[in-house]
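Reopening this ticket.

The earlier resolution said the output was attached, but the attachment link was broken on my side. Pasting everything inline this time so it's all in one place.
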Amino acid sequence: IRGTGGLFGSRDSIDTLTVIDGTVRMTNRISSQSTDVRGGFTCISTPDGKLQTRPSTPQERSEAESSSRISDQDNQLEFELRDNKGNTKQLRIDFK
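Inline output:
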């Protein structure tokens, strides 16, 4: 994804995507419903197949901005991923 910043999280079978810049397409795997989520908006994908898009709250924007900061020196993106059992893993992407 280019020119896009944001935060994706999953908890209790509900996926949440907050986009800071750019546009990201979010698809619910149950219903195959898709929507484009623009910067400044948050989309919630629920287990019943629905997608709900709304303006991001100040807290959501702040968390997304903090998690998507890119260091000019390191050229890395770091994410903490959590499965539905609460297990976490770190994902680091190095790029040029």
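Reporter confirms the inline version is readable. Residues 58-67 form the longest helix (10 residues). The CA atoms of residues 43 and 53 lie 4 Å apart.
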